[in-house]
């Protein structure tokens, strides 16, 4: 079985640019190829993520956990690609990798539509 999460986005071009330009996803297909509403696929390290800007799905934010080997190296790579962590003192996992009490090292990144990707090192 393969699970493919779908993130709801407000603007497909903005979302694809963020996921490919900052988070290092590879673009797949987009239908239709330009404009909104649209549905798109992205790929990263053999895994697939879908994006949808159709109005029936808009407004529902999701969180997807991405398992990684090295949280610090991955965070540094995203910073090198232009990611600027938000100033959120109430949420330290949004500003950089944090050791969690349950034994993981994590950081969170919110996409332009408010979806959260939790990058987790076990």
Sum this structure up briefly.
The chain is of the alpha/beta class and 122 residues long. It has two helices and eight strands.
Structural commentary:
The protein has two helices and eight strands; from the N terminus they run E-H-E-E-E-E-H-E-E-E. The protein has 122 residues and is α/β, with parallel strands linked by helices. It has a four-stranded mixed sheet with strand order 1-4-3-2, covered by helices on one side. It is globular and about 45 Å long. The relative contact order is 0.22. The model has no long low-confidence stretch (mean pLDDT 93).
Structure characteristics:
122 residues; 8 strands; 16% helix
- Helix fraction bin: 10-25%
Give the CA-based shape: globular
User: Which percent range describes the beta-strand content?
Assistant: 25-35%
Mean pLDDT: 93
* Element string (H = helix, E = strand): EHEEEEHEEE
Which stretches are low in confidence, meaning pLDDT under 50 for 5 or more residues running? none
Q: Count of helical segments?
A: 2
What structural category arises from helix and sheet content? Answer: alpha/beta
Main sheet overview: 4 strands, mixed
Please give the order of strands in the largest beta sheet: 1-4-3-2
Oligomer state equals single chain
| Rg for CA atoms | 14 Å
Beta strands, count: 8
How far apart are the first and last residues' alpha carbons, in Å? 23 Å
């Amino acid at each position: 079985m393969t699970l493919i999460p779908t993130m709801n986005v407000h603007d497909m071009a903005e979302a694809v640019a963020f996921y490919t330009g900052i988070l290092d996803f590879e673009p797949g297909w987009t239908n239709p190829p330009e404009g909104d509403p649209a549905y798109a696929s992205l790929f990263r390290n053999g895994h697939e993520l879908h994006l949808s800007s159709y109005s029936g799905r808009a407004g529902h934010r999701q969180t997807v956990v991405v398992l990684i080997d090295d949280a610090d190296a991955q965070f540094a790579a995203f910073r090198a690609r232009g990611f600027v962590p938000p100033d959120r003192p109430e949420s330290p996992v949004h500003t950089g990798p944090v050791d969690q009490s349950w034994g993981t090292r994590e950081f969170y990144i919110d996409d332009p539509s408010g979806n959260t990707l939790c990058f987790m090192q076990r």
